[in-house]
Amino acid sequence: MNPLLLSSLIADSIALGPHWIYDSAVIDQHFPNGLSGFENPRSSYHPGKKAGDQTHYGDQTLALVSSLQKRGDQWTLEGWREDWQTFWKTSTSYRDHATRETLAHLQQGSTQPSDSGELGGAVRAVAVVATIPPDQLERRVRVARDSTQLTHGDPQVVDVAEWLVRVSTLIENGETFAEAFHKASLNLPPVLQLANKVTQAASDDLSSLRMVGKDLGLNCGLDAALPLALGLCLRFENDPVKAVVTNALLGGDSAARGMLIGWLLGARHGISHWPESWFDNLHAARA
């Protein structure tokens, strides 16, 4: 499996246990010793999921990988729409707002996407960099934008998907996170300034970073999730395990943030930093 995709799926699965729990005290009750591997979900949003599974973000990313591999150079938005609908005919994965609204529109004969402005729509583009080589940047960008706008009508989400692809390509070519974040053009100027709140936190202690997380916001929207995820990338650029575990224990929509963090850490370091047991226990790695 491509190392960027594998790293993203690892971070998604690490987040599954505490995903969408916003109360840090509740997270600590469930995980008094922190996280050292994959856990069963503790919230009600992922029925049937087990430790080592993916959230709905990871599941849809793998569906996009399958679509891209099946269709190759003939991949189109229309083909992806067909494959995505087929995926949802049998999947028991959680149907978030973007999924429910897009499916409802399709049932009414409309291809209009949802109005979602959530980070989860953009991080699916890791499937694009996993299947299209970095020397085909413009194709990467086109497919990232098209695949994202199937379900997410907020143009900023589509722009962030493109930005992440451009950032990822720069990192794959040897840039640091800071260099890549600044070189890739993103028309969301406050994002990197907000991300600096994470890098400027008093310490790496979870309690200190939780204060920053609550300040930025732990919800699904781009305004909160993107700067928090980028800040964790910058703070733990050379400690991938701490990055994804800390992210998961912050709570909220840790899975969308985690997929972004894992993706970029995979671009920076490959898979050498992940514990061997995580590869063994990640179900997608054995599929």
Give structural attributes.
about 290 residues; mainly alpha; ADP-ribosylglycohydrolase fold; 17 helices
Structure characterization notes:
Helix 1 runs parallel beside helix 14, helix 3 packs across helix 4 and helix 13 packs parallel to helix 15. The mean pLDDT is 96. The protein is globular. The N and C termini lie close together (10 Å). The protein has 17 helices and no strands. With 287 residues, it is mainly alpha-helical. It has a single domain, classed as ADP-ribosylation/Crystallin J1 (ADP-ribosylglycohydrolase fold). The longest helix has 18 residues.
Shape annotation: globular
Range of helix content: 55-70%
Q: What structural class do the secondary elements suggest? A: mainly alpha
Our measurement of the CA-to-CA distance between the termini, rounded to an integer number of angstroms, reads 10 Å
Low-confidence stretches: none
InterPro entries: ADP-ribosylglycohydrolase, Ribosyl_crysJ1, Ribosyl_crysJ1_sf
Protein name: ADP-ribosylglycohydrolase family protein
Binding site for Mg(2+): 253
Organism: Phragmitibacter flavus
List the helices and strands and how they pair.
Elements: H1 3-16, H2 24-30, H3 56-71, H4 77-90, H5 97-107, H6 120-123, H7 126-131, H8 137-149, H9 155-172, H10 177-183, H11 190-199, H12 206-216, H13 222-235, H14 240-250, H15 254-269, H16 276-281, H17 283-286
Helix pairs in contact: 1-14, 1-15, 3-4, 8-9, 9-10, 9-15, 11-13, 13-14, 13-15, 14-15
InterPro entries: ADP-ribosylglycohydrolase, Ribosyl_crysJ1, Ribosyl_crysJ1_sf
Binding site for Mg(2+): 253
GO molecular function: hydrolase activity; metal ion binding
